[in-house]
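Slide 14.
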Amino acid sequence: MRDESHEDSGRRRGCPAGPVARGPPDLGRRTALFNFAFEEIELKGVHEGTEEFNFEFATVKCNVASYLGLVKSKTTTASKMFLEPTYQECETNTGLEVEAKSEFCAWFFTSGNEEGGKFEGELDLDCLGDTDELIFIARSGGLARCTVGIPAQQGLKAITYTNKEAGGVDDLTIDVGVTNLAYSQTEGFGFQKCASGAETNGKYSAHPTVTAKEYKGSGAAVSLWIE
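Slide 15: predicted structure.
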């Protein structure tokens, strides 16, 4: 798990004992920030429903998706939040099994702006090395039919955040509806193989809920929210 430091300034907010009381939303457009109950917290995301990636070759659906992140900050606010994904039980809409390799890349969620009570941000994909990618390999009969690579990129839209109270603390639900994902396809072998090429029309849809817990000490659940 990566260790990221955030330099965003902000006044200390939050309380591990329960959700934080907030006033009515300001209907004007303003910059929003992620808020944490502690300066060091561990993040965990669990998807709701099937996560999908749409490529020219096929649509890849993953039935199991999880995310892990760590915030070690000098304040209790940040404009970015990183989550390392793990995708499992994936297959194409044409029935091919798909192996997802994501260990060298992480999604960076940007807090963005709040307008009319709605929080919208952007999504970046960050990878360790220049050649590292988020990879999906579609196979049948032991043969790779197509390999799709998603490289590091920035400014993906649209991302919407919703505060959610659960179990006495605040969690954060993220709606991912990306429509401008850049990727490449590498031709495989045999029937159902794809054509090699690069595209910028990929789509990524997901609906994870992100929870937080104290990184040191008790490890108790704590609040995470955007405002």
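Speaker note: The two ends are 26 Å apart (CA to CA).
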